[in-house]
Amino acid sequence: MKMKQAYMVLALALAAGSAAAATTDFSSGTQGWEGTQPLDGNGGSGIDNTLGNDAPAYRTIINNFGITFANTTNAEFVRDYTATSSVTFGIDVLTQQVNYFGQDVTRDLVLELRDYDNAGNGLPYTSVWYTVGTLDAANEGWKHFSVTIDDTSAIGLPSGWGGYGAEEADGTPYLPTDRTFASVLAGVDEIAFTTYKPGFMYGFTDFDVAVDNISVSPVPEPGTYAMMLAGLGLVGAVARRRKQA
Fold first, then answer.
1. Closest of 94, 109, 7 to residue 51, by C-alpha
2. Which residue has the higher pLDDT, 30 or 232?
3. pTM of the model
């Protein structure tokens, strides 16, 4: 009975630490993720089974102003992020080409969390965004990018984060005064990894970029760690008593 109780404590701790966690590795389809333009004879986006990062992966080959990998339908990614006090977003990226008129260039990759329900100022949505990494074909191989929001209830923008939903006269975006970081996180209608960095514009560029293992996971609370340690300790104590007996 004591061993059963110990495992129950441990199971509850593990469940609390993994609540609302999600990963798309494209082995079961796109799970709601869409790239820039569907795949056709002229390029576009689709699942690629040849790229070798725990294949398959999701790949975009296109000439365009920028590229985006976005999700508007998967409730594991499109949801109220204030339901957990902190959360980590992650993505694996393979950059094979970013070329602007014959010259290799780099592009920032931005995580943008978009709320369409409370838009104003003549713009389509309100968002908060963060530059998670740089697309650079010279940086060979798969790269992992991530960002952690330490406090989803924050009113102001945390360090490194930008806001969108209103613009200065010169086009510089900012978070509207009637919105907060937390209020955007509470109503995310679309999550996007994109090179369309708010406030910036680019010319037509040749992209060949693949993504994999897109993830979102809550950061376990200190109490969860304590519960897990207690469960492990209880399992160990019971096991030792049984051995001694």
1. 94
2. 30
3. 0.83
